[in-house]
Design the sequence.
């Protein structure tokens, strides 16, 4: 357990990295904009092409990317407590698969961006309700049953997505594949993910003590007066809604919800009062940096940001696995 001073220092460093990542995203691109012009664009009323690029294009994308990365990291941290499984991440319970089915069908039938977002969100909610309903069943809710049900539902959704891709017209395949691999370019207004991030933090942090007890085991938490059933349902609902909002806004972006909580836990321990805000800052920063690389590595073309997060996440995960087996944590 880190000392209070060390914990505050780590949170301050993460906050600084978050600001730095956003400043980098606003400055770097096909048009390089000096940081002095970026600052003037944010606080002033000047006009010009560079300032318009910052305000209209890069700032909404950077804020949306930060909110999505933070939501994924929060969802991953919550699900790892819920399932007591360090391999749990926001997509293991089929939420992303349900959103993918909705989005693919919307693209297949030629709906607008609003229709795609709406069907993706409905698909995510339907998958969430299906997993939770089937996992509860007649025998009661358990972590193992929820995890297995989520894996099966995710596999079924993957099969439907593959079927949709196989029958889709060729001119629609590019958009479908980019959505499935994660793409912040079409995210638009970041208000919803930013608002969701604030609300979820405000909802989750007051329950940090109960989450700490739940992480030690259901029996221990129940003995100490935690309402286990209500807490589990709340955690699952919050994590699922966070994931649904992200996949609706940006498509499927993997590994952030898996890797970031591990890295933060190595530095801060498992105290949810520190872990949750730290994971949000680290996850948001990571996705903003990954999206900046996706925009610039092969400019003027753009890579799907989900590809970049996977290329970053896989070696980091293998390093963590070699450094200390996950089962010992």
Sequence:
């Amino acid at each position: 357990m880190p000392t209070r001073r060390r914990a505050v220092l780590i949170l301050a460093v993460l906050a600084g990295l978050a600001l730095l990542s956003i400043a980098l995203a606003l400055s770097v691109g096909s048009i390089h904009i000096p940081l002095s012009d970026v600052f003037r664009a944010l606080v002033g009323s000047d006009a010009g092409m560079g300032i318009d690029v910052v305000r209209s294009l890069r700032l909404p994308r950077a804020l949306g990317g930060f909110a999505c990365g933070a939501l994924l990291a929060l969802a991953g941290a919550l699900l790892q407590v819920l399932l007591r499984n360090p391999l749990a991440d926001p997509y293991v319970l089929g939420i992303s698969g349900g959103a993918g089915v909705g989005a693919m069908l919307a693209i297949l039938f030629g709906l607008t961006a609003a229709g795609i977002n709406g069907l993706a969100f409905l698909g995510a909610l339907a998958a969430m309700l299906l997993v939770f309903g089937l996992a509860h069943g007649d025998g009661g809710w358990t972590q193992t049953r929820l995890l297995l049900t989520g894996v099966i539902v995710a596999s079924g959704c993957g099969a439907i997505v593959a079927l949709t891709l196989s029958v889709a017209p060729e001119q629609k395949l590019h958009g479908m594949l980019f959505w499935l691999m994660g793409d912040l370019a079409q995210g638009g207004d970041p208000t919803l993910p930013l608002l969701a991030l604030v609300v979820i933090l405000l909802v989750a942090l007051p329950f940090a003590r109960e989450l700490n007890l739940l992480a030690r085991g259901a029996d221990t938490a129940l003995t100490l007066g935690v309402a286990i059933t209500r807490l589990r349902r709340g955690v699952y609902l919050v994590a699922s809604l966070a994931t649904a909002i992200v996949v609706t806004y940006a498509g499927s972006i993997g590994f952030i919800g898996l890797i970031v909580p591990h890295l933060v836990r190595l530095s801060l321990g498992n105290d949810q009062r520190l872990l949750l805000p730290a994971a949000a800052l680290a996850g948001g920063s990571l996705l903003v940096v990954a999206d900046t690389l996706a925009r610039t590595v092969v400019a003027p073309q753009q890579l799907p940001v989900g590809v970049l997060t996977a290329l970053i996440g896989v070696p980091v995960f293998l390093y963590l696995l070699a450094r200390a087996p996950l089962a010992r944590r």
